[in-house]
Design brief:
Helix content: 10-25%
Distance between the termini: 64 Å
CATH topology: outer membrane lipoprotein receptor (LolB), chain A
Largest sheet: 14 strands, antiparallel
Radius of gyration: 22 Å
Shape: globular
């Protein structure tokens, strides 16, 4: 009789532990935790600046084919322009991250300082200097970022900044997407739950300059207990009608930063449209620090 009671007690404990272990992995809980994390994260990442090395290439001669959602850039990108294999460029920039007050969108500012190791011809105040000079002059910073966009290879775009996918998965936009839970995966040793998202809302968040709608989809790798985002993959394709043979897409990997005490972008890979077909890019980030409205940048 006593042995039966012990067995029942152990069984009950195992069942209870199993329920507790499974509870963080329900889809709704994962989305709630991710949403809470992103709302806190936007206040902590805002006012952070970093140095960016962004290598881009367009190979005009190779056969271009469609790209799957998981087939983002994995190879190294060259560092100089060539005429035989297409175009190659390395941009060295200062980037700043900011979310506008009142729930407005994420902004990523890129200030290109060198192109293929050569300083730009007319450098002015840096992004961080502009933003701290007058309590955050977003208009001037955006003008710098727009001017820097001309150094991108491929078709014109300003969305290739690490915070752009965070705008798509922001909790304020949760109603616009269908979410599904996929298998768990490990990201650099951390166990994560993988979610897939597909935009259902019309009109879509993204549009081409012509007005054609672009449907967003992708995957998110989050730490189930805290909702911390370790990786996000974003794809945007034409809603209907003929389009490019592949969809533009980005992947951003985040990593802990000990001094700032937050996750920061570690690497961004990109597949983008170009007149001759497909381009690829890889950006890495270093020297994270904070800017303020005082006369100096707070050191890390």
């Amino acid at each position: 009789m006593r042995r039966t009671a012990v067995v029942l007690l152990v069984t009950a404990f195992v069942v209870h532990a199993a329920v507790d272990a499974q509870s963080p992995h329900t889809l709704e809980q994962l989305l709630d935790r991710m949403g809470s994390y992103l709302l806190e994260y936007e206040t902590r990442l805002s006012s952070v600046v970093a140095d960016e090395s962004f290598q881009q290439k367009v190979d005009n001669e190779r056969q271009l084919s469609s790209v799957d959602a998981g087939d983002l850039l994995q190879e190294s990108v060259g560092t100089s322009r060539t005429s035989q294999r297409g175009e190659r460029v390395t941009l060295e920039s200062e980037v700043a991250f900011m979310r506008l007050p009142g729930g407005a969108q994420w902004l990523g500012f890129r200030d290109v300082r060198k192109v293929n190791a050569k300083p730009v011809s007319t450098p002015g105040a840096t992004i961080s200097e502009v933003l701290k000079s007058s309590a955050g002059d977003v208009t001037k910073a955006q003008a710098i970022a727009d001017a820097s966009a001309r150094y991108n290879l491929g078709l014109p775009r300003t969305v290739n900044v690490p915070t752009a996918p965070l705008e798509i998965i922001h909790p304020a936009r949760r109603h616009a997407f269908k979410y599904e839970r996929l298998d768990d995966e490990r990201v650099r040793g951390t166990s994560t739950s993988v979610l897939r998202f597909t935009e259902l809302q019309r009109p879509t968040i993204m549009r081409e300059p012509t007005g054609r709608e672009l449907v967003s989809s992708g995957r998110i790798w989050i730490e189930p207990g805290s909702g911390t985002v370790w990786r996000v993959e974003w794809i945007y394709r034409a809603d209907r009608g003929a389009g490019a043979t592949f969809p533009p897409q980005m992947r951003v990997d985040f990593t802990p930063h000990a001094e700032l005490g937050i996750m920061v972008p570690m690497m961004m890979t990109e597949v983008f449209s170009a007149p001759a077909g497909r381009g690829e890019g890889r950006a890495t980030y270093t020297n994270f620090r904070r800017f303020g409205t005082s006369a100096r940048i707070v050191p890390q």
